[in-house]
Amino acid sequence: MSESSTSSDDLFALLKSYVGREAGPPHVAADPVNLPMIRHWVEAMDDDNPVYIDEKTAASSVHGGIVAPPAMLQAWGMKGLKPNLPDGPSALDELMDTLNRAGFTSVVATNCEQTYDRYLHPGDHLVGSAFIESVSQQKTTALGTGHFITTRTIYETKQGERVGSMTFRILKFSPASTQPKDKESAK
């Protein structure tokens, strides 16, 4: 076996050791679900469903009151531009650092899937707990060569009621060369 394949095998074994680990400590949303943020969201998305902002219509609906658009699930727990970071690196930070040191210095989000267990109501205060679900073997894509990393976040209220989840996948990669392949293409 060549040294490069052994190195690649050793790297993949190290990467796999992160699977199943908590990506970081649980994150408590800075604010509970609230009408002003719902209003901003529906205006930005041009979503005119009255159960999101019209109290009278929402009260007479199956929901019995205002609810947040389900797609806002992730928005409630986003850390903002100046997040309060935990002491020390998380498992996800360590995984990213390992990939950076191995030459996989670029990142692109590839897909996100959410599931909704129930609608969110103003006053719900969410906690997101994320773990590293999978790390792929090295793959070559049009962007370059790298590893797909999948995390799963479970969202619960502060009272422990599960309200949804999100699977988020990125490609951590080394960009493909942008140099011309031959002299003809350089002209």
The Cα radius of gyration reads 21 Å
Main sheet: strands, sense, barrel: 6 strands, antiparallel
Per DSSP E runs of 2 or more residues, the count of β-strands stands at 6
* Name of the top-level CATH class of the largest domain: Alpha Beta
In DSSP terms (H or I, runs of 4 or more residues), the helix count works out at 4
How do the strands and helices of this protein lay out in sequence?
Elements: H1 3-16, E1 27-28, H2 35-45, H3 55-59, H4 91-101, E2 106-116, E3 126-135, E4 139-140, E5 144-157, E6 162-175
Antiparallel strand pairs: 1-3, 2-6, 3-5, 4-5, 5-6
What does this structure look like?
- With about 190 residues, this protein is of the alpha+beta class.
- It has two domains: about 5-35 and about 80-175, Hotdog Thioesterase (Thiol Ester Dehydrase, Chain A, Roll); about 35-65, no CATH class.
- The protein has four helices and six strands.
- Strands 1, 2, 3, 4, 5 and 6 form a six-stranded antiparallel β-sheet that branches.
- The radius of gyration is 21 Å and the shape is elongated.
- The two termini are about 40 Å apart.
Can you describe this structure in just a few lines?
This protein has 187 residues and is α+β, with helices and mostly antiparallel strands. Helix content is 22%, strand content 28%. Strands 1, 2, 3, 4, 5 and 6 form a six-stranded antiparallel beta sheet that branches.
